[in-house]
Amino acid sequence: MKFLRDCWLIFARQMQLLLRNPIWVFVGVFQPVMYLLLFAPLLKPALSPLGVTSDAEAYRVFVPGLLVLLAIFGGLFQGFGLIAELRAGVIERSRVTPVSRFALLLGRSLRDVVSLIAQAGIITILALFFDLRVFIGDLLLAYLMLALIALMTSAVSYGVALAVKSEDALAPLMNTVAQPVLLLSGILLPLQFAPGWLEDVAKWNPFSWAVDGTRALFAGDIGNDRVWQGLLIVSVLTVLSVWWAAREFARSVR
Amino acid sequence: MIIETRGLRKSFRSRQGREKKTVEAVRGVDLRVDEGEIFGFLGPNGAGKTTTLRMLATLIVPDGGEATVAGADLLRDPGEVRRRIGYVAQGGSTWDDSTAREELVLQARLYGIGKSAALERAARALSAFQLSEYADRKCKTYSGGQRRRVDIALGIIHEPRVVFLDEPTTGLDPQSRAHMWDEIRRLRSEGMTVFITTHYLEEADALCDRIAIMDNGEVVAEGTPDSLKRSISHDVITVGLNGATADAAAVLDSVAFVARLEKLDTGEGLRLFVEDGATAMPQVLRELERNGVTLKSIELHRPSLDDVFLTKTGRSLREK
């Protein structure tokens, strides 16, 4: 009960600050929108070996990947905000109160999830203009996948931020993690094009399962095994990440 | 006794290149702080003041020793200590884009206070700290002194029995500093115990009821500013005379409270060493008058806390 209340207090404050400067939500979607407008049109011809014959089909492959990309990157860079809060003394101020340490983490991560879903909504609506069509039930399940990914990556980012305590260390660290994850997940181009060895390596990347599952949902193929497999893998990783980050909070924010 | 510590210790491991070093930041601190006083930790930067304060505020775990803070055991029950104390860090604690009111309401709520009560407390704190006018402006628009007052208000929003203020006036201009002293005295008058750290001699002297002088991780002296000053040397009264020096010396030599007496090199006066200059001065005047000695001038010199620091550590705090 106290935990839920604490979570809500932290979440509400973070939301309030986010809404005070909603520009960041739009800055966050700027890059994906550019991909949508300037990169996706290349895809119809490029994906034709996979049987893609229309813009709608191309977007059905590309948009889910783009959304997963957004969730991964959006989450991984949330740690910067926490470092700014550490520097301002806001975290220390919370530390001397009896507030739940786990709530300090979860309240922030939930704000990140809400902001990600808002961004995903904007991109999905834009994609509708390019003839993307998706069933609402499938879409909601895909958003659940995205929410879990954002929760996972933002928790990891907060945990790392608490450990390194400096932007200079966090930026290269997150980029180093994010780049191979991005390339090995078939986000920009499906891995069906990949040589066998690359596909084998990508199998070890949980995000490639998440991308496959999200694509299946956007294709209306909710019965595809990749859907439950992706959700399961992402859920397990989310629980582990949140658990680890919560421990970091409890330790350094005793 | 609201704070009592015995042998509180803390060391940090630091690395310089390949070499690992253990720095003993606090080496066995024994303290007793009475309820309702302003207690000051005086010492140079790096003396271990902040580390001790952070241990008492449950932010760092001590390596050894024990402490009771506001009736709760620091090591066994840090959660209870946390509920009963307030802590204001040195570097500030407000977020640029929040307003003072929002920060105060949130802080109160983090202590478990309900929403309407939190709003009420925030309003009361804002008016007590003369911040009502700026309450709904963003913190980044505040002056240094205003922002510092918000920090203190945040630290006491849950009405703790003890509040720890880490260098509350560092970086403030003289006027804001005087204002802050008034705020701190007000907290005491409301029954709160205030524990501050400072490296300003004047602040320790003027503001604190009792102080502990800290150097190199240890408390080297403890007491009221006056008793500390008296403990190292006597107050000195210099009496200027136009002749009649020998008469005056004869009169004053027989007075009980004069511990020692010497003639000035100029021969135009006397130097008297007394326990308490403030009460001795009128008596000196009276004695001389009664015996028909007229004096030209009278001057009191009392040892400063810097003299105390110098005596205890061999260094001056002021040069730091």
Radius of gyration of chain B, taken over Cα atoms and rounded to an integer in Å: 24 Å
Largest interface, chains and sizes: A-B, 21 and 29 residues
> Which shape of chain A, going by the Cα principal axes?
globular
Biggest sheet of chain B: strands side by side, in what order? 6-7-8-3-9-10
Overall morphology of chain B: elongated
What is the H/E order of chain A?
HHHHHHHHHHHH
Assign the structural class of chain B, choosing from mainly alpha, mainly beta, alpha/beta, alpha+beta, or little secondary structure. Answer: alpha/beta
**Rounded mean pLDDT score of chain B:** 90
Judging by the overall fold, what is the CATH architecture of the largest domain in chain B?
A: 3-Layer(aba) Sandwich
Count the beta strands of chain A: 0
What's the CATH topology name of the largest domain in chain B? Rossmann fold
| Spans where pLDDT lies below 50 across 5 or more residues of chain B | none
How many separate structural domains of chain B?
2
Describe the structure.
The complex is a heterodimer of chains A (254) and B (320). Chain A contains twelve helices and no strands. With 254 residues, chain A is mainly α. Chain B is α/β, with parallel strands linked by helices. In chain B, the strands form three sheets. In chain B, strands 6-7-8-3-9-10 form a six-stranded mixed sheet, sandwiched between helices. Chain B folds into two domains: 3-229, Rossmann fold (3-Layer(aba) Sandwich), CATH 3.40.50; 234-302, Alpha-Beta Plaits (2-Layer Sandwich), CATH 3.30.70. The mean pLDDT of chain B is 90. Helices cover 36% and strands 30% of the residues of chain B. Chain B is elongated and about 75 Å long. Chains A and B meet through helix 1 and helix 6 of A and helix 2, strand 6 and helix 3 of B.
What's the arrangement of secondary structure elements?
The complex is a heterodimer of chains A (254) and B (320).
Chain A lengths: L1 H19 L2 H17 L3 H4 L8 H22 L2 H10 L1 H6 L5 H28 L7 H29 L2 H17 L12 H7 L3 H13 L6 H28 L2
Chain B lengths: L2 E14 L2 E15 L4 E5 L6 H8 L7 E6 L2 E2 L4 H7 E4 L11 H11 L4 H14 L15 H12 L6 E5 L7 H16 L3 E6 L2 H7 L2 E6 L2 E6 L1 H8 L2 E7 L3 H9 L4 E6 L5 E6 L2 H14 L4 E7 L3 H9 L7
Parallel strand pairs in B: 3-8, 3-9, 6-7, 7-8
Antiparallel strand pairs in B: 1-2, 1-4, 4-5, 9-10, 11-13, 11-14, 12-13
Helix pairs in contact in B: 3-4, 8-11
